[in-house]
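User: Quick sanity check before I run a bigger batch. Here is a single chain. Can you write out its predicted 3D structure?
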Amino acid sequence: MWLNDREARVWRAHLALHRDLQAVLERRLARDSGLSLADYALLVPLSESPDGLVRARDLATAVGWERSRLSHHLSRMESRALITRETCPDDARGAMVRLTPEGRAAITAAAPDHVATVRRTFLDPLTDADLAALDDIYSRLSAALAAEE
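Assistant: Done. Predicted structure follows.
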């Protein structure tokens, strides 16, 4: 069954907004800090973790990536000294990812401008009622997706 006109319009608007917002955030972050959104997505949970240390599989889960994508991106970040990889003390097959001082400095420097861009491009145009509605909508959509799994 096809989407009706309203459903199609909303779905296409969602896709376009997601694409355009990602593009703006990617360009601004790269321009302002030299980081990609992928770098930033990985640096956030690392910077929020005690000792800046996260098991690789938990990091992949946190950002919703497949293991191979994570591994390739971590290699790029490691070559730029943003992270290091270590053997997991509990499981020799597992890997730990550690935020380096350079990585912490990079996210600390990037965060204020990135947050300002998120506010300006996504949050500021919305009212408190809009935010409450989106909070409810995103919660229901996330629950529906979880039920699909």
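Strands lie at 53-55, 83-87, 95-99.

User: Great, the batch can go ahead then.
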